[in-house]
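Protocol step 4 of 6: structure prediction from sequence.
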Amino acid sequence: MPGPLDGVRVIDFTTMIAGPYGTMLLGDQGADVIKVEAPINSDHARRAGYAQRHFSAAFVNNNRNKRSIAIDVKASRGRELLLKLVETADVFVQNFRPGVMQRLQIDYDDLRAVNPKLIYLSMSGWGEKGPWAHKPVYDPIIQALSGLTSVQGGSDDARPRLIRTILPDKLTGITAAQAVSSALYARERTGKGQHVRLSMLDAIVAFMWSSDMGSQTFVGREVDVAAAATFIDLIYETSTDYISVSVMTNTQWTGFCRAVAKTEWLEDERFKTPAGRDMFANERLELMQSVLVTRAAADWLEILEEAGVPCSPVLKRHEMVRHPQVEASGIVVEVEHEHAGTLRQARNAARFEQTPTEMRHGAPHLGEHTRALLRELGYAIDTQNELVNAGVVASFGD
């Protein structure tokens, strides 16, 4: 049975991670995603990090379930070809800096002229307006400006720290996929396409507000210096390894104190309420650490689990993929890639009972489907050859 977005065609005019990750999610859910790259300057992710048989891990993990066509859209015939593709599409996604698409003459107004029902998603770093709109940006820069590094540091007084994964990139991709789905639903009701705009900065600020911006929430009563909260760093050292323990409710705090034989902590006025445990977080965390370091991780995990206290071992990446719970969830799968060999990847996280997601094919070579797509658009073999020979398109294998 096909995925929930079966029948939707997406033109993916994005590079790096944020855009490709978002469009891959749409492809996992059944959309026909056509990745458009330049014949010479292809997606930089093809050449980044771990690689095998001409495929980088960054590329295969963000570009499965896509077909590839290589077009020089700066050439008049290349732009003409892209417009023909757009005529057949439901969605167009791009993540270039403001102004680039206008110069290429493929901005929203240009594409709406050939496909009025098109959903056009523009992804940018900073947004379309403001003094930084045209500045280049990468994930760490967004983390810094958004305040996320301050949150990760633990408090405003501590050294700011990066989250050691590209959270802004990936969260922007997830937000993009959700926005496209909503726009498609709106089109079903209204029959109208639209321009959807999304910036990495907006995605991260909105993401942070639900849990990290309490000090700025109440107008007129803002707090200039944010202190550490109990959920900032809940990693504890034991005599053998690290574990994570989180006690939020009164019941969990009682269970923890009894499990570690420190019932006198229950009488400490500082810790009798959730608000008090937050206010005196540093003191409480130090007490918890002082007792947890006295026994082995396996012992504490058994004791705390029996007491109903949320806890977990702290796993390294190679341990995580083999943990029984991860294996039971089926989130990590092994798939065969036609060119790169056997891959270990995470499946699409959402599970649809009636319209399941599927890994239909792996990430493509540059221009792997150029010929097939030209045929679909009605280009005769002689015209295909002419376009290839002129460098307007590139086709893998030619």
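Step 5 (inspection) to follow. The radius of gyration is 25 Å.
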